[in-house]
Write a structure and sequence with these properties.
60% of the residues lie in helices and 2% in strands. With 268 residues, the chain is mostly helical. Its main location: membrane.
């Protein structure tokens, strides 16, 4: 009964080995990375770019500049979102909106990497590769999974328009807080400061909170099982990353306000 009601909101899972395999891989990988962040084993970018070095001194690490690393993360996924407009033309409203949302999401990240973010560290290639593959393959899988729904009846409950609202709230909120972060440093400054403005007084990672909202908006637009699995997996990862980030601020700044949560206001 519960599953029947659940699938009123979604298309039935496609009989595709590729989509099924990617569903399992995406969820397990993202959840595992989230748990690893909580345990102190970080993906090496942003303020954690030099973490775990004491564990990897015997291995030669390939370092990228942060800007190059960020562009590596997001450009393939941006292209994967844009190219299907030519591969799958006339797919219908839902597919067009989904492709547009994913393309816009990663275009914004490329734009921020080029013109908004201010960098102080590097990025380790071994961390950049799995993140790049995650964004690229999830984009391909979401769009292909949507293509497989083309001849199926629509879900009984249409979530496209609430999804557009959620997506816009997420992408605008994420951009705004990235902009606030970029304004913390003056010209030539590289040190970290306690973020202020927006929702930073409530959670230390409001940009992550809005990214989570963004991907649930994508799920509402898509209404496929894979898009839901990816949104849940992303939630697990960003919960872990935000928890680690809050602990980092607590260890670095004696005056960091203890009432500020990691990513969910007043809760976590």
């Amino acid at each position: 009964m519960a599953m029947s009601m659940f699938f009123n909101f979604m298309f039935p899972p496609p009989s595709s080995i590729f989509v099924t395999a990617m569903s399992i891989i995406s969820f397990v990988a993202l959840a595992n990375y989230g748990i690893s962040e909580i345990r102190g084993k970080h993906l090496n970018y942003s303020k954690f770019w030099n973490a775990n070095n004491n564990k990897t001194n015997s291995v030669k690490q390939i370092k990228l500049s942060s800007k190059v690393g960020m562009l590596l993360l997001y450009t393939p996924a941006f292209l994967a979102g844009a190219v299907p407009f030519w591969i799958f033309p006339n797919e219908g409203l839902r597919s067009t909106i989904l492709q547009g949302a994913l393309t816009l999401h990663y275009f914004k990240r490329v734009f921020e990497s080029l013109f908004v973010h201010k960098y102080s560290g590097s990025m380790i290639l071994d961390s950049a590769i799995p993140i790049t593959l995650s964004y690229l393959m999830s984009t391909i899988t979401m769009i292909y999974g949507q293509h497989l729904t083309k001849d199926l009846p629509e879900p009984q409950i249409n979530l496209i328009y609430p999804g557009i609202v959620l997506f816009l709230v997420g992408i605008i909120g994420n951009f705004y807080h990235h902009f606030l972060l970029s304004k913390l440093r003056g010209k030539g400054e590289k040190e970290y400061k306690i973020p202020k403005g927006g929702l930073f007084g409530i959670v230390i990672c409001p940009h992550y909170m809005f990214e989570i909202i963004d991907f649930y908006g994508v799920f509402f637009i898509s209404q496929t099982l894979y898009s839901l699995i990816f949104a849940i997996g992303t939630t697990f990862y960003l919960l872990g990353r935000s928890h680690a980030t809050r602990n980092w601020y607590l260890s670095k700044f004696e005056d960091f306000p203890k009432n500020v949560k990691a990513v969910i206001p007043f809760v976590f």
